[in-house]
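Look over this record as teaching material.
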Amino acid sequence: YITPEDPGIGGVLKAEAECFVVEEIPLYEPEGTGEHIYLRLARDGWTTRDIHKALARLFGLKAVDVGYAGLKDKQARVTQTFSLSLRDTDEEAVVQRVREALPFEVVWARRHKNKLKPGHLLGNRFRILVVEPHEDALGRAKAIRRGIAEGGLPNFYGAQRFGTRGRNEEKGREALMGRGPRERWLRKLLLSAYLSALFNAWLVERIRKGWFETLLQGDVAKKTDTGGLFEVEDAVVESERFRERAITYTGPIYGAKMRWATGKPGDLEREVLASRGVSVDTLNRARLNGSRRTARLFVEDLEIEEHPKGACFTFSLPKGSYATTLMREFMKSDEGLPDPTEGES
C-alpha cells in the first residue's frame, strides 16, 4: 500500500453487478459514415470475449470482423462499444436484431470508417459501491484520498490480469521458457500476464526503496500531454515539471526492444528481471518487443459518498489502469475484492 499509515475501510466489492458500474470513455466518436457499425451496449454477466463471439454468430461474421477497444469485467454493469463490419446493413436493423436475440441494452448504433481495436479508448469511468465497510468508513476513505492526491497511486496491474488464484503468472513463465500452450492467442495472454507480474514486482521494489514520489536520473519519463518518452538526464532540472505532473516516470514491460532506464533505475530493472531467472535472450526467443508503462497515477475526479449499504466511489482512470487497484488501497485488504474473472478494467 502507498498509504499504509491510514487504516482501510474494509468491506466487500461486487456484491451485485449494479454495485460495480463501468463506462468506457471513447478515444473518438463515430463519424456517421463508413463500412463499420459501432454498437454501444450496456450489459452485465457477460465477458467481453463472449459478447464478441455472440455478435459474430448473430451476424455471420468472422471473429476478425468484430472489434472492441478493451476487455471489461464479467461481474459488473458495463457500457462499452463494439464494431461490426457490416457495409450493407442498416443501423436500425442491427439494433433490432441485437435487441431481439441478445440480453443487452443497445445505447446507440452509428457508422465509422475503421474497426475498433484494443487501445482505442481514453479510459473508463467507474461507480463502485463498497458494502459492509468498517465504522467511520467515510472518514477513513477521505484520509486515504488525501494521501493519494498528494503522492499518487501505484499503477499496479489488478488481479484480473492474472486469472483465478493468479495461475496465469506461473503459466506465463512456462510459456516464456518455451513450455506453454501452442494456441497463439492463449500464449499471448499468458505471456502478457507474466510481464505484468514483472512490472508489479518492479514497482513494489521502487516503493520499498523510497523512490515512488521521486524522479531519478536515468528514468525513462513520459510527457503526460503527448505521451512522448525521454531519458531524464538531470533530475534536478526536470523536478519542476515532475511536481507539476507534466511528466512522470515509467516502468518496464520487458522485451527485446524495450527502452531501458539507465543509472540506478536501470540497475533496478535488471535486478528484478535477473531475480526471476529471466535474461534478455529469453525475451528475444519469446519474440517479446516490450514497452513502457506509466508507474504513478493521479485520480483527479475521485468522489466518495455515503450510501445506505456502505460507501460509493466515482472516478475515472486511463486505459490499462485497474479500478480494483485503487479500491484495494482504500479497503486495505484483498479479501473483499472479487475473484478474478476475464477482463481488464
Notes: The first strand starts at residue 20 and ends at 26. The two ends are 20 Å apart (CA to CA).
